[in-house]
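Input.
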Amino acid sequence: MTTSPRNPAPRFATQRNPARKTVGGKVCQIMRAFGNDPMPWQREALAVACEIDPETGSFFYDTVIIVVLRRAGKTTISRSKLMHRALITEDAQMIYTAQNRLKALARLRKDFHTPIKRSPMEQFMDKPRWRGGEEALRWKNGAELAIDAVSKSSGHGDTSTEAHIDEAYAHVDGILEGGIAPALMTVVGSQLWILSAAGHSGSNYLKDKVDLGRALVESGKESRTCYIEYSAPEDADPNDPETVLNTHPGVGHTLNIDRLMSQRLNSKDLAEWERAWLGWWPKAKAPPKVVPTAAWEGCYRDDGKPWKGTVCWAIDTSPDRETTSIAWAAPSTDPKAKWHAELLEERLGTAGVVDRMKQLRTKHGGNMIAMDGNGAAKSLKKELEDEDFEVVLLSGPQRVDACGGLYDDFLHSQIRIANDPVLNKSMGNAVKQMVGGAAFIWSKGRSLGDISAFYALTFARWLLVEKAPEDVNPDDTI
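Output.
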């Protein structure tokens, strides 16, 4: 069988913006200096990930997520990109992590230090530091590449220019990124790279990133996250060599298709073979969350006053009338977001809701309340209007718009919310119900539990956007 490279396209990928310059070619030159001729997929990935923001003159993407098959050359990309950063940034402070600290140290010695010593890049290097706990590669211009342990304190206390989380499938949560991200935040053009093969059932951190990245690509909207994934469609035949040839970008370059298929034939763990060479995850035991966890948690607000201007209210009652949720939304004070929304409270039944709304209006202002035109909370409409509230009932199409609009805002970090366990659980209970083929709502009949809190938040944000009080700029909703 031929092993000529097919150079397959990624299954999901952020598209190159030709209006922006890129230094991806410069990174490829460094790769060649290491003796590695860049594969087509590496050239294409670097061209996108290394696009330059014309406003800052530095990198456009602040997060780069690359999920690719085993032995495809992701470590080669990481080594060359970090070398490029060191050469262009005096005193650059860089971090590299792997499954754990021992693995990261082994990679630093074998996959970074040794190839550098054997290449023309060695002329730019200073003496490395191998003192236990402080290991780092050092450049003559003051740049350093250190390794970091997987802990809550990772990256804390320093300002970092670039960080690479390699083998991200090994992490069960976001503790590592939570430690590293603050160190990157104040540096213009800093980048967090997340590189991995597909994960397994415990790869919660990477799975969140995959869900977010796929959603961003499918939305077609621009963001500051670059996502590239090579994997086979779920309905492809894993026993057909054509599936691997049309999926793995390293076949014909560094890998032989006959050897890969022979491994499958002799494998005692076909699921692991499929994870490594086709990018398939174990079958999910539950439907994915309607808002990817990484997008949801990325919208948690910081401390301080989170909102300004006029408040818009929303009420939603569960179909069994056991729970009523009150939420509100207002313009956000965060310059990177448009809206702020919160679940104010969740109550048993509907008793006392109108009196509570009168108290909230006195305290926070705001006279408009959104509710589902076909929902259980509609029974409160007349009583609320008798108290001079303006009640807005959402029609079916408006409910579709409300769900889609909230989803987009979370995906693109345009909304801020509190880290509220009740709201978090409500969103986790929600299940998408497709409407008309291309749109969706949160299904009240199929969801895994009560979602009235999530719907109240959805309606509050819709009311704020659509009814646009005087202190909301309509242009911000476009």
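The longest helix spans residues 101-117.
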